Amino acid sequence: MEIKQYIEEIYEYAPIGIYHVNLKGKITMANSEYAWMLGYESSDVVVDQITDFSTQVFFDQEKAREFMFNILEADQIIRFRCRLKRRDNSYIWAFCYAKTTQNKSGRPDGFNGFSIDISTMVRTENALKKANEKLKLISVIDGLTQIPNRRKFDEYLASEWGRHIRKKNNCQ
Q: How many domains does the chain have?
């Protein structure tokens, strides 16, 4: 098997979205995983329909501006966390990576990008954050009386003591 064929198979069967965007913001190449991530039926449809990368791919336009500024200024982006817009206007969370490409004369002609779906990880982080908030609340409220317990009293005392010391130092 030729090296070109190996690369084509890796490109097409990679579990991450891979794409190329030209300087005009049009996606010129995309693999099937990227099409699936964005909710399109095939990579050909992505190439046909996504003509403005920053407005059609990013769910949050501020993140789109940040991404485009970084790729144009720094020539590469690593672990850029953002929401990608799906065809139905829902979104997925992704880590995006990108590196500028150059033509034969060494001038930038676009960039190659890679996107990894991290939606499951973000949902897990959010659930963990909620569970920790609930655990913290449970740890300072008495289950029977529903009033703050000794731990909450100790936290409040430490906070007020610190405020007293700061106020005392500011008055001198």
A: 2
Residue 110: beta bridge partners? 22, 101
Q: How far, in whole angstroms, is CA 37 from its chain's centroid?
A: 13
Is 127 inside a domain boundary? no
Q: What is the pLDDT of residues 3-58, one digit of tens each?
A: 989 888 888 899 999 999 999 999 999 999 999 999 999 999 999 999 999 999 99
CA distance 118 to 105: 37
Contact 141, 149 (CB under 8 A): yes
In whole angstroms, what is the distance from residue 91 CA to residue 57 CA?
A: 9
Domain with 22 in it = 3-122
Assigned token pair, 117: 């779906």
Q: Which pTM does this prediction carry? A: 0.79
CA angle at 99 for the pair 94 and 104, rounded to the nearest 5°: 150
Residue 137 pLDDT > 80, yes or no? yes
